[in-house]
Amino acid sequence: MPDPTNSEIAAALEELGDLYELDGAIIHRVVAYRNAAKAVRDASVSVSALARQGRATELPGIGATIQEKVLALADDGAIPAAVKLRARFPSGLIEVTRLPGLGPKRARRLFEELSIDSIDSLRAAAEGERIRTLKGFGPKAEESILAALADAGAGEPRARVVLHRALAVGEQLIAALREHPASERVELAGSARRMTDSVKDLDVIATASDPGALARAAAALELVEAAQIPGEAGVRLRTHTGLKIDLRIVAPEQFGNLLQHFTGSKEHNMALRDAAVRKGLHVSEYGVLDDSTGHTTKCTTEGEVYALLGLQYIEPELRENRGELEAAAAARLPELVQLGDLRGDLHSHTTASDGTASIEQMGMAAREAGYEYLAVTDHSASFGFGEDVSPLALRDQVERIRSAELDGITLLAGSEVNVLPDGSLDYPDELLTELDWVIASVHSSFRMDAEAMTGRLLRAIEHPLVDAIGHLSGRKIERRAPYAFDVERVLEAAARTGTMLEINASPDRRDINDVTARAAAAAGIPIVINCDAHRVRGFEVARYGIATARRAWLTAAEIANTRPWPEVQALRPRHRAAV
DNA sequence: GCCGTTTTCGGCCCGACTGTTTTCAGTCG
């Protein structure tokens, strides 16, 4: 039996937390399990392996007890405490606690007093008006339970929206509000401001000379399908795309507090407040209360909030409670890479494969995006959609790239070569040696087992003519999970061979992700941020690659293509000489 | 269950909302 993966361990710890909560454990113990689950999920190394070495306790929120439980899971496939509790609480009961309005306390009473142990028995009890017989429950409770059941069964479990779709609408709304005469400051908040992969809804914070007028104007915008009644405090909107947007309007003197609060993340804010309490301060969306004076300080900017707590300003992308508070306290936050730092792009397509523009058109678009160089990397021989480039055609393509006459940008002849199921590439080495740049990607046979996929990737990484691996995990945000492979072994191999790893900036990929990118850079692996552009407007997505890099704490120095092309070349092991 | 420049024991974020309440517990973000 293979060791449990980090996500399996995290799920087991979450479940145990849920079970302890049903069992009536003090909430702090339950929270401890949830914090541990998050620490496992954020870990870039195998927590099973760490636990075997007795080092899992180095992760924040994991102590000796939870390490023991991880070891039990790894050795016996189960945690004894969870087995015992599962016998007492039917699994359907945990689903009942997930319904809005029902938590562990009320679910447990339903179980003990009405034998409700599943969604089905809950529905039957509500319909039979038996729930209102319980003390503390009334007709309203029954009604809201039935409404929650109807929502859950409506088949529209409102999936999260990929970030760029939400921003496409949100940025229009913000631009419109900024133009309104009653508005003063209008800023995006929430997870979208932190540039997460996907979002549930959007939060917008504003100050206004006439709040009511601004809220009414927002509700009247063309992109709004429905709005609740606008008020002085703001308005809740739903756009025609189905996206929910909360506009909150506040007094200017509290703008910093509110923006900080609603930017989150929840975990960041909880840790921030915890640290504040130890200094005798209490942080909320209304200000910072000082225990010793009883005085609440309001902040017009977020910088003031952090400064009051003795912290450096923390960029939104870092606010995930992944060590940013400790770093800010020590004034050791990294200077994050910015969009303007990119000097070139090393992954693009033309009409030679599945792109829509010519070499020249893509070159001009890249130049307009501010790049000094662009690698043209059409798909290789076996791409498989009738868009493949045969070896002969690639030689022609190299000629065309080399002879393209474009001022102000250097075009590089490259290819995005398929990594075949056995880990070999689908161009011969003699052909690859003629190229300036080779990026290798997996485009087929995603469902191999982890061992085989790891071997496949290792072979590509170790190939002396491969400069970088494209979209390493193969994930599509909200649509396709990464394929199974051993991230640690892959990073170890890339670090050893000097093979670069791509952050593919395409907003539905953002692959490698923030957690992996941070681990890769820490291992000394050069990262490249590429747009994978298939059309002239394809370079607009660079901001999403930059966002992932920033969420990974990366500086410009850790991104290869912030350098001029000759320096990128020098970074590569290019074993070319050895071939 | 975790954790420590005020603690190895005694704490553990903050405020809003809801329903069933006569002062609040449970839930949510």
Structure, explained:
By secondary structure, the chain is of the alpha/beta class. It has four domains: 6-153, DNA polymerase beta, N-terminal domain-like (DNA polymerase, domain 1, Orthogonal Bundle); 161-249, Beta Polymerase, domain 2, CATH 3.30.460.10; 254-329, Beta Polymerase, domain 3; 339-578, TIM Barrel, CATH 3.20.20.140. It is 42% helix and 13% strand. It contains 24 helices and 17 strands. The chain has a seven-stranded parallel beta sheet with strand order 11-12-13-14-15-16-17. It has a five-stranded mixed beta sheet with strand order 2-4-7-6-5, with helices on both faces. Mean pLDDT is 93; it is low at 575-579. The protein binds one DNA strand of 29 nucleotides through helix 2, helix 4, helix 7, helix 9 and helix 14.
Describe this structure in a few short sentences.
The chain is α/β, with parallel strands linked by helices.
Give the helices and strands, then pairings.
Elements lengths: L5 H17 L4 H16 L4 H6 L11 H13 L3 H9 L2 H8 L5 H11 L4 H9 L11 H15 L7 E2 H17 L3 E7 H4 L4 E2 L2 E7 L2 H9 L4 E4 L6 E6 L4 E6 L5 H9 L2 H12 L3 E4 L2 E4 L4 E3 L4 H7 L15 H6 L14 E2 L13 H10 L4 E4 L14 H13 L6 E9 L10 H4 L4 E5 L8 H13 L5 E2 L17 H11 L2 E5 L9 H9 L4 E4 L11 H10 L13 H7 L8
Parallel strand pairs: 4-7, 11-12, 12-13, 13-14, 14-15, 15-16, 16-17
Antiparallel strand pairs: 1-3, 2-4, 5-6, 6-7, 8-9, 9-10
The structure holds one DNA strand of 29 nucleotides.
